[in-house]
Structure formats: structure tokens, C-alpha cells
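Sequence, please.
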């Protein structure tokens, strides 16, 4: 990770950590870097945060000042930017979003011409320019100045693409959608309506400050109650930029990313579509998932947390499905990044083909209890590498043995240390998480 760019872009509180000056400079660099040999074309999408409009114009100003053209998708999803970049010959794209973070945060996700996260070396060059290490860039003049283009048609083409992926109608199915008052609000309902479902939508009235607030994939209890109370067949909850999906089964069971990987991976194996007979997970995936995959005869690989690492593994080895427990799921045949709406479509394909409820499809997986605590710290490396913290982690590992595990890692997007314990019951999880968190507090790392 760099000074500004983490595992999921440049992210922080708007105009505190991430400012309009930063956005302008990112635009300036991208317009210049990709426009050395031709006039570059760069596409911009944004979520529904109040600050997204501010950053959109700052980016566009920087891009056009460097002589490139800025194409505006307006409010849209991160995977739609990825799709448009890779299918319509853009030099790169930028998504303005802080994903699942609160409304007052925002972020810049830079996407390369292949539709996935920008290479680390380019992000480093952007950082060097922001910090004044690489000198000033020339400004375009006269007819060389770029222009902005309304490109809402790109979002519409993405919607058409999603609809084309489904191989059957969803007619007769009652589907609930929690759009998190975010990007999915402008896309998800139209997709499922077109596929024949009877669609019920909640949290699709963004006002700039209600994105992810008590709703969406990070507050799944809202959709869970809605599905059960209204007798729906299934529900899908997205995050702010709709690159995540968490599902709710007909009986209210929460179907997270691990269960989605199991259900779709098993279905793909049965249909001869699971290349290498392997799915890709992260170190955060549940132990119960691996036991179920073993029973199904499916192999798996583990990566660091972050869908960029999942995707790198998939591309290197030719795997077809991978993702995170949080609901970032990548289907490499169809996308280059996590796509919540696509994930919902793929789950519906399994439901329709197998003629089974989502609760039945998930039944073979027994999820081990987990306790995850996000601890805000002043200095992530110092907290993680503290000698007493390391000793506390080792003590928990020894106590758990083969009956569970502990994972302590730095967040790639927030000033947070994540402490997770997985064990046979909630009491054990709580005990050992607290054991490590108490040491972090005692050593003065917590803010």
C-alpha cells in the first residue's frame, strides 16, 4: 500500500483526508500520463454521496486541463465503470466512491484499460505527483484543452449487458433489493424488472447523506426482516457502489460471500464450468466453508484480503470464481471486479435451474461462529507489530490449536486493526478477541 492508495483506492474523509486538490491532481496526472501519444479518453462514475459531485468536477477539471476528455457516467456502480472502460476503448476510468464507508468519507478508485484496479506503479507515480516529487505537468492550451462529455449511455449499455447474462426468466419470483441509498438505486430494479421478477425495493432514495446508513450489505438485518415479513423468495443487499452483494434466503438466513462462493462454485462444478476445479477465497473466509468445499470435492486457494488480490490470483491461474466473505464476488467470465448485481443474477440462475430455495442450497455449509472487532488505532504498523500484541496473538493461537483460528490484520482502507477469532462457540470467540483488544488498549494504540 502507498501513502494515499490502499487496497481499494485513495479513501478518507472528504476535504479532510481526500480533498478537491487531490482529485484535481489525480485528474491532471491521468490526463497527462495517458495522453502522451494521443488525446486520452477517461470515464468517470460516482456514487450518491454529497461530496461525489464536488470530486467529479475536480477530476474532470484536472483531466481536461491536461488535454484529455472526461466522459461522465454520473451516478453509477463501480463494476459499470469497469465494464465501460474495458469494452469501449477508454484509456482508464475513475470511480468516485468510499464503498461501504459512511457518507462523509469518499474515495477515488482508478481502473485500468482492462477494467481492473490500476497497477501499483501507476498509483505510486500519482502519489509522487501529488507530493510534488515529480515536478509540474504542462497545461493544455487552445484546441488541445480537453472537453467533458455526458456519457449516461455507457451506464445504459451496462444495464443491457447484465440483462443479457441471465439465461432464463425470473418470472414468478419475489425478490427484495436493498440498494443502500447508493449506486444500485439507479440500476438494480430495472435489471430485475426486465428479467421478469416481482421486485420489492427498499433504501433507494439517496439524499447525499444517507448512503449505507442503517441499510445495505453492512446492515443486512434491515433486508432480512423485510424478506421474512413480506414472504419473499430471496433478497439482495448491495453496498454504496454496488460491488458487493449479501443475500437473504427465504427463511431469513444470511447468505454472505462465503456461502455465495460455495453455492455458485458447486453449481459451476456440476455443469463443467469450474476451471481447475478451484475457487479463490481470502484469509477471512470461514473454516466451515473449507469443510463444505472439501465435501464437495472442490479445491480452494487463499489470498490476502482485497478483491484486487483475489482477481490477480484468478487471472494468474485461470480460475472462474473467487471473492470475499464481505460479498465482493468476481465471476471472471463476465467481469473484472466484484459486481453485486451480477452476483445476484448468478445466484438467481442457480435457484431457477436447481428449483431449490436459497436456504436449501446453503444447507451443507455449517458456518463457524466468528467475532470481528475493528479497532481504530493511531498507527496501524506500530499497533500490529507491538511486541506485546504479537505475544497476545501467539497465546490465542496456542489456546485454540486445531479448534479455531485468530486473524489480526491492518485494514487497507481505514485507520483500523481488524481482530477476528473463529471458534466452536461465541463465548470462546468473544474471550479471545477481547484478550487481544485489551492489549491494544493497554499499550495506548487505540484512539
Amino acid at each position: 500500500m502507498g501513502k494515499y492508495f490502499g487496497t481499494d483506492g485513495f479513501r478518507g474523509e472528504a476535504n479532510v483526508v481526500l480533498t478537491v486538490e487531490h482529485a484535481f491532481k489525480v485528474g491532471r496526472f491521468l490526463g497527462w500520463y495517458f495522453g502522451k501519444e494521443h488525446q486520452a479518453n477517461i470515464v468517470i462514475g460516482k456514487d450518491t454521496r454529497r461530496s461525489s459531485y464536488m470530486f467529479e468536477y475536480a477530476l474532470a477539471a484536472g483531466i481536461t486541463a491536461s488535454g484529455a476528455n472526461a466522459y461522465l457516467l454520473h451516478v453509477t456502480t463501480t463494476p459499470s465503470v469497469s465494464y465501460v472502460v474495458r469494452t469501449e476503448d477508454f484509456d482508464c476510468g475513475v470511480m468516485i466512491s468510499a464503498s461501504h464507508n459512511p457518507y462523509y468519507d469518499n474515495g477515488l478508485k482508478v481502473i485500468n484499460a482492462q477494467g481492473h484496479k490500476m497497477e501499483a506503479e501507476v498509483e505510486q507515480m500519482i502519489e509522487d505527483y501529488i507530493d510534488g516529487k515529480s515536478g509540474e505537468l504542462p497545461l493544455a492550451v487552445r484546441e488541445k484543452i480537453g472537453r467533458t462529455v455526458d456519457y449516461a449511455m455507457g451506464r445504459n449499455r451496462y444495464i443491457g449487458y447484465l440483462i443479457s447474462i441471465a439465461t432464463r426468466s425470473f418470472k414468478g419470483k419475489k425478490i427484495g433489493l436493498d440498494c443502500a441509498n447508493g449506486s444500485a438505486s439507479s440500476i438494480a430494479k430495472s435489471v430485475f424488472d426486465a428479467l421478469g421478477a416481482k421486485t420489492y425495493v427498499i433504501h433507494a432514495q439517496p439524499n447525499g447523506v444517507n448512503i449505507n446508513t442503517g441499510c445495505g450489505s453492512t446492515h443486512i438485518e434491515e433486508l432480512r426482516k423485510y424478506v421474512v415479513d413480506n414472504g419473499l423468495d430471496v433478497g439482495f443487499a448491495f453496498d454504496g457502489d454496488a460491488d458487493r452483494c449479501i443475500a437473504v434466503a427465504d427463511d431469513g438466513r444470511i447468505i454472505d460471500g462465503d456461502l455465495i462462493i460455495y453455492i455458485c462454485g458447486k453449481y459451476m462444478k456440476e455443469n463443467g464450468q469450474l476451471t481447475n476445479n478451484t475457487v479463490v477465497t481470502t484469509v477471512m473466509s470461514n473454516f466451515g466453508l473449507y469443510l463444505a468445499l472439501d465435501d464437495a470435492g472442490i479445491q480452494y486457494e487463499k489470498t490476502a484480503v482485497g478483491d484486487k488480490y483475489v482477481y490477480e490470483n484468478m487471472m494468474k491461474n485461470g480460475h472462474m470464481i473467487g471473492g470475499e466473505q464481505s460479498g465482493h464476488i468476481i465471476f471472471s467470465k463476465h467481469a473484472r471486479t466484484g459486481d453485486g448485481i451480477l452476483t445476484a443474477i448468478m445466484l438467481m440462475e442457480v435457484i431457477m435451474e436447481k428449483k431449490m430455495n436459497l436456504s436449501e442450497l446453503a444447507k451443507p455449509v455449517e458456518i463457524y461462529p466468528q467475532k470481528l472487532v475493528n479497532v481504530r488505532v493511531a498507527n496501524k504498523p506500530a499497533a500490529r507489530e507491538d511486541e506485546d500484541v504479537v505475544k497476545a496473538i501467539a497465546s490465542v493461537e496456542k489456546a485454540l490449536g486445531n479448534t479455531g483460528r485468530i486473524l489480526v490484520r491492518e485494514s487497507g482502507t481505514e485507520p483500523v486493526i481488524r481482530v477476528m477469532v473463529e471458534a466452536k462457540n461465541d463465548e470462546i470467540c468473544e474471550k479471545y478477541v477481547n484478550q487481544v483488544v485489551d492489549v491494544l488498549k493497554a499499550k495506548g494504540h487505540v484512539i
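The chain has a mean pLDDT of 95.
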